[in-house]
Amino acid sequence: MADPIPDAARAAWRWLEGPGGPPRYALSRTVFLRCFGFIYVIAFGSLLGQLLPLLGHDGLLPIDIAMRRGHAALGASGLYEAPTLFWLLGSSDTVLWWTCLLGLALAVVVMLGRANAVIMAALWALYLSFVTVGQQWFAFGWESQLCEMGFLAIFLAPPWSLRPIPAGDPPPAPVFWLYRWLLFRIMLGAGLIKLRGDPCWVHLTCLDTFYETQPVPNPIAWYLDHAPHGFLAAGVLVNHFVEIVAPFMVFGPRRVRHTGGAIQIAFQAMLVVGGNLSFLNWMTAVNALACFDDTLWERVLPKRMVRRAMSVRGDGKWGALSLPRRVFGGGLLAVIGALSIPVVVNLISPEQVMNTSFEPFRLVNSYGAFGSVGKQRLEIVIEGTLDDPDDPHAAWREYPFRCIPGDPDRRPCFLSPWHYRLDWLAWFAGFQDLDQHPWLVHLVYQLLTGNPRIRTLLAPDPFDGEAPRSVRIERYRYAFSAPGSDAWWTRERVGPYLQPLTLQDPRWKTVLERSGWPAEVPNR
User: Fold this and answer.
1) DSSP codes joined into one string, 356-374
2) Same structural domain for residues 323 and 383?
3) pTM attached to this predicted model
4) Which of the chain's ends, N or C, has fewer CB atoms near its CB within 10 Å?
């Protein structure tokens, strides 16, 4: 008598795999690349308007100074240790601007459905170039995630054809496996760092303060912050399920894998609703598209596209790929496998670190988010005056940031997926020391000199283009207002963050020279 268990197991697997035969990815590839092109559009587009004030020759952290230091420290190994095209192209403002504009133009081409390996390689190299020399403005996990996803996209796209669904070129299934491996590491890393990093994630209390203290709240965060504790505790449990349990679903049979991908996309949508976390959640949702094969897209995409996809021969497995594809695919799997070893070791380590690259090209990285959650919101407020700063009656006017809290009456902004890099770092500066953010001293200097380019990083100029006589930075404690209030925030002054400075202050020359910035202090 035959053992019924294997038959039952096979039947269960067939049901979980669902109808449709072996997975095919012709439609999945074109949807994925179009959506990924959108992420590149946001990344390059949001950078373009801020690029020169942040990284230009007269910017807050000039690239040319960073590269001179890098060349002195690294010598001939700089091209490997700090991979960036700016070693070859130079780092003038003109080069930076046109390089970013080229990246934006290529990203639009990809978003419109015209992608091949050459274009994807160019986009990866261009963005990696900015990440490498972007200093504090690019020191976050989503930058490495974009580089890692961009590298894999080189092997996902058709080698030469610009047709959205080229005949005779089945998308390589192994690249989709690697995207799932990336999604698994992103989510599990985020879940484990929470459990290891802050007891509030175990006690289910983190969301009680998260919406108020997150980097850039939006208006909906105010309502979520005032939700009942039971609702917020349930949100923590959902977070643990999505980040600890659901990642394993991406390796399951079709129905499990599709469900796992849908869970991750829905979770990222929830995060977008509750805050402005740059393009991180949008990009992770795009990554989750790798969980779907053509059996899903055949139900929702135009019949013309579906018929075109059916003409692509093969399912993308090794046997259906051309010899060059198999060679490059095997090499890619070997490289990613080897580079994954320290990442996995870090993932299972009690001393797990998040958002770390173990090699300069950022091909495989560790990830994580909000390993700790703040219990109070501290913000810096930059103020200037046209009066004598020593006069107790001097009128100080606030330089508002574009999105983080300033005026308590100003409504929080809807920003995601756009990204204001100055606002993001200013949030960190609020609960860290000035010596961790020397760019703030340079910002004060540029405001005192009346640099119009730097003022574009902030909201409308309180002095209408006139340079202030003195600038200072104060620290405030912010909290969401109570229901029924006419304001969005309440705030109280904590103390000085940077004492009032004028251009005539003799300390300027030492500060600027130590940081490598131009030390010419104009007299006026």
Assistant:
1) EESSTT-SSEE----SS--
2) no
3) 0.94
4) N
